[in-house]
Design a protein that fits this description.
The structure holds two protein chains of two kinds.
Chain A (H helix, E strand, L loop, with lengths): L1 H12 L1 H7 L5 E10 L2 E11 L4 E5 L6 H9 L6 E6 L2 E2 L11 E3 L11 H11 L4 H14 L15 H13 L5 E5 L7 H18 L2 E6 L2 H7 L2 E6 L2 E6 L1 H6 L4 H6 L4 E11 L2 E6 L2 E5 L9 E6 L5 E3 L9 E13 L3 E8 L4 E7 L12 E7 L4 E2 L1
Parallel strand pairs in A: 3-8, 3-9, 6-7, 7-8
Antiparallel strand pairs in A: 1-2, 1-4, 4-5, 9-10, 11-12, 11-14, 12-13, 14-20, 15-19, 16-17, 16-19, 17-18
Helix pairs in contact in A: 1-2, 4-5, 4-6, 5-6
Chain B lengths: L1 H12 L6 H32 L6 H8 L1 H34 L2 H12 L6 H12 L4 H8 L13 H26 L3 H8 L4 H29 L3 H6 L7 H10 L3 H26 L1 H5 L5
Classes of the chains: A alpha+beta, B mainly alpha.
Chain lengths: 379, 293
């Protein structure tokens, strides 16, 4: 309590130094489990969240990402496992003593309080002097670019403004961790895009640990330092956005982050670090560890990495080729998606930048697909 | 907020005078019934206070000078206030606990709270007479426990009136409070705790202010109903617990219709004043709708 008060009181005067001293805290999740009526929501989750990083828990609904966030905040008690902040267990600490900022999808602004009273709420709980509260509230309003809105009530604000106020309220007491539960879920696309950049800016400015929950992979890719992909209560993969996109660890991650075409293949051998396999009688190479000879494997290729070859003659050493037939052509604005069918009946999508002029292909045309060995993954 | 958004296009799409007839046909019978069997008799009854035996204000003026009438009004108000406070103190925690429970638990408990509504007030009052009487359940129990030697006089005291009326009126406090508590977004207390509010702080700063319209609606109902209570104070109260309704009945028995009418007029006026006060403080339409904006 004392140190928190000092932090709040002192921060107004020495904002610059406090920003450094109060940088984010590391969070540790160790074999974390949560069961509701014996149904597992989170199953043995271990995660090391670095001090000051922007980490996103990404997954479909029911993947356990929100439950995990609620356990960090203290609104759910883990069935097993450990949560640490700064290396100290917080499982037994009630939420009101955890000093963690939280932004809810529904904003959760107090409707009976003005914007200034809402933002000042966490400071009042910490018994900060009135003058400090006033200064901190003004500073927080400025930080979310809403100076002068203090006297309004939440219902007089737009959704985007309410979310900014919720953000200001969550960081005004200088927590070292900020949790966000799908905070942009209720906003329209344009507002979401600008708020994403705003939240990133806030993260850089504050330097504290952000734990962000979303089911929107694009949002996760745009904002995060690292993304933890979750499914059915388990961690599927953790890594930077580029790592997850270029080297998904499994089929779930490959399909959940970005789009992927999947091909069924039989492993036929490895040579010069290229794992070769057979797809419809054609040799397809992938940059991956060898699979046992004759094993069935699944290959993944991103739609935008596929191209149409003019003829078999341009088949260089590290280029894969596959015969297919055009089934459908879909114009999506800046890109055009061509759906083709491989000889084994697998449907593949080729994504290209749209061009003016007549279409190159028509449904029924035989085509030759080409793509780099490096763009082929074994999942 | 969403209500307003939805209602606007619907309303503007409708031609203004088109369905006037339909509305009149729907509301008309009720209005006619109320005028014929409620408004007219009330007006006629109130008129007797100034029209009998001849046009005069004596009956109304007597209210201010008659010591008994003044005293009875005072007792009525005091009783109503005490019962309102008692129902709030007992009812709010019950409503709060119900609102925290899962529906599977709350619904059967709500049924228990509603159960007394299906028995007549008279029966419930007699039940209290049995409980509080000289050889009633309470006295027998206390004597058996050795806490008292002589039976206490509880029945026919003010305390008996407060206890019985509080019991009878409790559902009127619990139900509106409960319905408003249920509508409070449950992420709000969560957010408050996350921002550093202790459990008591959450109660004081979030639950209480947000449920105030419901509690106010309940308090208003209990207070207004208390003002007109008749049977219960008559049966379990003592001679000094005479409330206005009882006095009116006495005057009617004495065939003093003009004064009974004047007392009724005063009671009606006081009730309207209470409603006006609630309206000034909280906005009556908001209280009646259970706090929804």
């Amino acid at each position: 309590m004392d140190s928190r008060l000092k932090r709040v009181v002192g921060s107004a005067a020495v904002a610059q130094t406090s920003a450094v001293a109060l940088a984010g805290a590391p969070i540790g999740l160790i074999d974390l489990e949560k069961r509701f009526d014996n149904v597992g929501a989170v199953l043995g989750l271990s995660l090391d969240i670095r001090a000051g990083e922007f980490i996103t828990l990404l997954g479909p609904s029911g993947s356990g990402k929100t439950t995990t966030l609620m356990m960090i905040a203290g609104f759910e008690t883990p069935s097993a496992g450990e949560i640490t902040i700064d290396g100290r267990s917080i499982v037994a600490t009630p939420p009101y003593r955890r000093d963690i900022g939280m932004v809810f999808q529904s904003y959760a602004l107090f409707p009976h309080m003005t914007v200034a009273e809402n933002i000042g709420f966490p400071l009042r709980q910490r018994r900060a002097p009135a003058a400090t509260i006033r200064a901190e509230v003004d500073r927080a309003l400025e930080m979310v670019r809403m100076p002068g809105y203090g006297a309004r009530y939440p219902r007089q604000l737009s959704g985007g403004q309410q979310q900014r106020v919720a953000l200001a309220r969550a960081v005004v007491f200088h927590p070292r961790v900020l949790l966000m539960d799908e905070p942009l879920g209720a906003l329209d696309k344009q507002l979401r895009d600008s708020m994403q950049l705003e939240i990133r800016r806030l993260h850089t400015e504050l330097g504290i640990t952000f734990v962000y929950v979303t089911h929107d992979q694009e949002e996760a890719l745009v904002m995060s330092d690292r993304i933890a992909v979750m499914d059915a209560g388990r961690l599927e993969q953790i890594g930077s956005p580029e790592e997850l996109y270029d080297r998904p660890a499994n089929r779930f991650v490959a399909s959940f982050i970005g789009e992927s075409n999947f091909l069924s293949a039989i492993a036929v051998g490895t040579e010069d670090g290229v794992a070769w396999s057979d797809v419809c009688g054609q040799r397809i190479g992938a940059a991956a560890a060898a699979a046992p000879l004759g094993a069935a494997v699944t290959l993944a290729v991103r739609p935008e990495r596929l191209a149409f070859a003019d003829g078999p003659q341009d088949g260089a050493a590290r280029i894969n080729m596959l015969r297919a037939v055009v089934r459908d052509i879909v114009f999506v604005g800046e890109t055009t998606r061509t759906v083709v069918e491989a000889e084994d009946g697998t449907m593949l999508v080729v994504k290209q930048l749209s061009r003016a002029g007549p279409r190159r292909h028509a449904p029924g045309d035989p085509v030759l697909l080409r793509w780099a060995v490096e763009d082929t993954l074994v999942v | 907020m969403s209500e307003a958004v939805l209602a606007t296009p619907l309303r503007s799409a409708r031609a203004p005078g088109r369905d006037w007839l339909l509305r009149a046909a729907l509301v008309g019978p009720l209005v006619a019934w109320m005028i014929a069997f409620y408004a007219l008799p009330v007006v006629a009854m109130l008129l007797r206070s100034v029209a009998e035996p001849h046009w005069t204000l004596d009956n109304l003026l007597r209210l201010g000078t008659d010591g008994v009438a003044m005293h009875v009004f005072l007792i009525t108000f005091r009783t109503a206030a005490i019962v309102t406070i008692a129902t709030a103190v007992i009812g709010y925690p019950v409503a709060f606990a119900l609102a925290q429970m899962s529906r599977a638990w709350a619904n059967p408990l709500l049924l228990l709270i509603l159960l007394p509504f299906w028995t007549s007030v008279l029966v419930r009052t007699y039940a209290w007479m049995v409980l509080l009487g000289r050889s009633g359940v309470l006295n027998e129990l206390l004597r058996w426990l050795g806490l008292i030697d002589q039976p206490m006089r509880i029945l026919n005291t003010s305390l008996a009136v407060y206890v019985a009326m509080t019991h009878i009126l409790l559902p009127y406090m619990i139900l509106p409070t409960y319905s408003v508590l249920l509508e409070i977004d449950h992420t709000l207390p969560r957010a408050a705790a996350g921002l550093g509010a202790t459990p008591f702080g959450v109660l004081r700063q979030v639950w209480l202010p947000l449920s105030m319209p419901g509690a106010a609606a309940g308090a208003m109902l209990v207070f207004v109903l208390s003002l007109g209570f008749f049977i219960t104070p008559a049966l379990v109260g003592g001679p000094r617990d005479m409330m206005v309704a009882l006095l009116i009945q006495q005057q009617v028995d004495l065939v003093n219709w003009p004064f009974a009418s004047a007392l009724s007029a005063a009671l009606l006026l006081v009730t309207l004043l209470v409603l006006a006060m609630v309206h000034r403080l909280l906005g009556l339409e908001r209280v009646l709708r259970g706090g929804r904006r």
